[in-house]
Structure formats: C-alpha cells, structure tokens
Amino acid sequence: MKLYQIIEKLGRPEKPVISFAGAGGKTSCILELANDWAAQGKRVLVTTTVHMERPEILGRTGWIDQPAENIRKALETPGVVIAGSGSEVPEKIQGLSEETYSQAAAKAQAVLIEADGSRKFPVKVPGRNEPVIREDTTHILILAGASALGRPLDQVCHRLEYAKKILGPQSRILTGETLGKLLEKGYVEPLKKQYPGRKLAVILNQQDLLEEPEKVRTVIESQMSVPVFLHSREEKKKGIHMILLAAGFSKRFGENKLLYPVKGKPMYLWTMEKLKEIQKEGLADSLVVVSQYEEILKEAGRQGILGVKNPYSERGISSSLQIGLEAAARLKDRDTEDYYMFFVADQPFLRKETVENFLADFEKSGKKIGCMSYRKTPGNPVIFHECFVPELMELQGDTGGKRVLKRHLEEVFFYETEDPGELEDWDYKEKILE
Predict the structure, then answer these.
(1) Which residues are registered as beta bridge partners of 377?
(2) Predicted pLDDT at 254
(3) From CA 21, how far away is CA 414, in angstroms rounded?
(4) Which of 41, 291, 294, 414 could lock 246 by a disulfide, CB 3.0 to 4.6 Å apart?
(5) Which three-class secondary structure string do you get for the chain?
(6) Peptide bond between residue 381 and the one before it cis (omega within 30 degrees of 0)
(7) Which residue spans traverse the membrane (predicted)?
C-alpha cells in the first residue's frame, strides 16, 4: 500500500504533520510520501527533530541554515522543500529552530518529520527521550524493516538493552510475535500516553522480502493496539541525474558570458533555476553544477544545489563532464537504473516545460540516449544511460558527449523542438544585443 493511501485510511486532516519513528527506511519513506503529495500539487516541508542525511547526499535540493523567509518563499509553489540546520556531523542536518519551523510549517500544506535515529538498523526500541515528537504532530508512523525477521536480535535491533528489558535476556531470534511486542511496549504504549489524540500506526517496510506478508502482518498486529500496514520499497524505473556545465572560458564572447546579464539576470542562472524547479517537483533525482567560477558555486550552495569546482577547465568541456559524472554517481541510489542528463549554462531561453516534455517522451521511447534537436540537428541537453559512462569518462579535450551519441545512433531518441532559440548557445555578445 502506498503511504499516502495509509494516511487517507487513518484519516488525513487539512494539513497533516507526520512524524516518522522506528527504523527500516524512514528517510526513503518520507521522500516517497513527499514526492507523491508534491505530484498532487501539495507544498511539502521535510525536516527533522533529530538528525537526517544532508539533502545533497540524498540527491536533493536543500535549504540548510536559511532564514525562514527563504524557506517560505521556496514553499510558495508545489514541491518538496527539505529544510534544517547544520550539524556537527558533516553528512547530517539537524532540525529547525522553533521560530523558523513555525513560520515555515505555516506555509506548507503537509509537514513530514524524521523524529528518530536508528543507525541503519532495521528495528529499534526507543530509549529515554526518544522519539522526538513535535506538539503539532497529527500522525506518528512507527517503521520496522522486514529484513530483520528471522535474524538474531543482537544483529538487527538498535537499543538492544531496551529490547531485552521487554523480551527478557534469553530472547534470540526476532519473530513477528516478538517484533509486535517490542513495538507495542517500546513505542505505542508510551506514545499514546504522551500524545493522546494522535493517529498511530506501524509500517512494516520491505514487504517484498516476505513470502507470506499478510500472514506476518496479522501475527505482528495480534500483539498490538494499533493497525499494522505493509509497504514495499519504492521501485524506481529510472534515476535521473542532471548536470549543469558552467565552466567555460567564453573566448569568443569577450567576457565571462555566464555572468553576463540577460533580462536582468546572469545568463547561467536562467537554466540553473529551471533545473532546480524540475528537481523540486520530483522529475529528477539530483542536480550538480560544475564550474570554475566562485560566484556560480556560491549561488548554487545558497540555493541548496551541489556545486563542484573544476580546477582543470583549460582541458575543455570533457573535464567538466567527467567531474559532474563523478559527483552525480556519488548521489545515486544503488537500486536504480541511472541516467545522466547534461545541460550547458549558455542556453538561457531553454524552457522548463520543454525539458519536462523531453523527459516524458524519452522514457516512453525505451531508448538509452536522448537528445533535443531542431530539424534533426542535435543540441543540448543530452541524456545517457549509465552503460555509456565508461565511454564518457574516456573523452578528452574540448569534446563533449555528442561524440558518444554519434557512435550509437541506433540508441538515440531525438526530441524535436519547434523553437530553435531554445537550443541556441550564446557565443557572441552581439546576438544578445540584437
């Protein structure tokens, strides 16, 4: 069952505030639910009361250490906004201040909160002061991973000492019955007392690992006073990673064209902001900006986008392409079939809707390379299946991905645009001044 369907079954208020506790896939479930609601036109705030992975590690845009007004502005349009503050652990973020949270949450139509830590274990019994639940919470979802069942308790359970207090020191193998007892005594009973009136449920994640999932669910629920729902790990057909190349020297332009104002905004910013919106809407899994220019990298960081410096720009576009590939590959989900989509930063009139339509038609095509074109002439952006990464990494000098594309024309989907201006790169200042 999809998570948004579970919330509907439990009863969804006008603005749900859902705290995720337990173990076995909290972050992935939060992002799945956030994406589904964003696709329904909702403005969704994702945050934490404990720690969660930094958005860029998750392949997402984030608003970290940002003032409330910036987070509120990001929540003016449908999409997913991940917000928090910096942590002493480099790869993690912490929650928002009370004032910032209140202002941001007021703008959102749904709030999803990671309220518990589990150190990657599939099952947890909470310790003192865990989980950390906000008072405005409407639902508390307690997760457990099906991968823990049938395994030794000491291998799968976080806070093992608390589990043994419930089950006794002789408990060895985690069964459906013992899992139900742990979740009821560890989570449900104390949470009902501390947060009366909230909707509580248990989610048994990774149901696809079970031979008889409904039978297991029934056994767990027999030990509990709240409903138990089955949930499968989200299956992604494709992982789309966008890479914006913004490191050129603009030799023919006469100055740095990427910083040149076009209709009151630096040229590069037109494309970067459109790609950020595409990612925010869940149509791509990550966005990386590659540049040699500090101004561009700082702006990417300010907007919560992963910026990567290219110290070898003199080697040509191949260096930026490969640095971007390496950065995007670190963000990929190992369970996805990945595609890498390259954009150039001197196409300010490329429309967001055109990119979205290109992606939709490319997926339907079944091809492994996609390219936007005008009258059969290839242009940018270009997208490649992960199987072409070795060839892309062998490119040298000022040679881009089109060399690989031309070797595999039988695998190429051409998306024809009606407006050649969308694909035109501005190599000469006179063009813009016309």
Answers:
(1) 374
(2) 55
(3) 46
(4) 291
(5) CCHHHHHHHHCCCCCCEEEEEECCCHHHHHHHHHHHHHHCCCEEEEEECCCEECCCCCCCCEEECCCHHHHHHHCCCCEEEEEEEECCCCCEEECCCHHHHHHHHHHCCEEEEECCCCCCCCEECCCCCCCCCCCCCCEEEEEEEHHHCCCEHHHHEECHHHHHHHHCCCCCECCHHHHHHHHHHHHHHHHHHHCCCCEEEEEEECHHHCCCHHHHHHHHHCCCCCCEEECCCCCCCCEEEEEEEECCCCCCCCCCHHHCEECCEEHHHHHHHHHHHHHHCCCCCEEEEEECCHHHHHHHHHCCCEEEECCCHHHCHHHHHHHHHHHHHCCCCCCCCEEEEEEECCCCCCCHHHHHHHHHHHHHHCCCEEEEEECCEEEEEEEEEHHHHHHHHCCCCCCCCHHHHHHCHHHEEEEECCCHHHCCCCCCHHHHHC
(6) yes
(7) none
| Tally of CB atoms within 10 A around 193 | 8
Query: Please, are residues 183 and 202 in contact by the beta-carbon 8 Å criterion?
Result: yes
Q: Which residues pair with 21 in a beta bridge?
A: 142
CA distance 52 to 23: 13
List, in sequence order, every residue forming a beta bridge with 123; answer none if it has no partner: 157
Structural tokens at position 429: 């200042």
User: CA–CA separation, 245 vs 272, rounded Å?
Assistant: 10
Gap between the Cα atoms of 365 and 359, Å rounded: 10
pLDDT at position 434, please?
Answer: 43
What distance in Å separates the CA atoms of residue 143 and residue 29, rounded to the nearest whole number?
9
CB atoms within 10 A of CB 211: 6
* pLDDT for the residue 425: 67
Residues of the chain with pLDDT under 50: 428-434
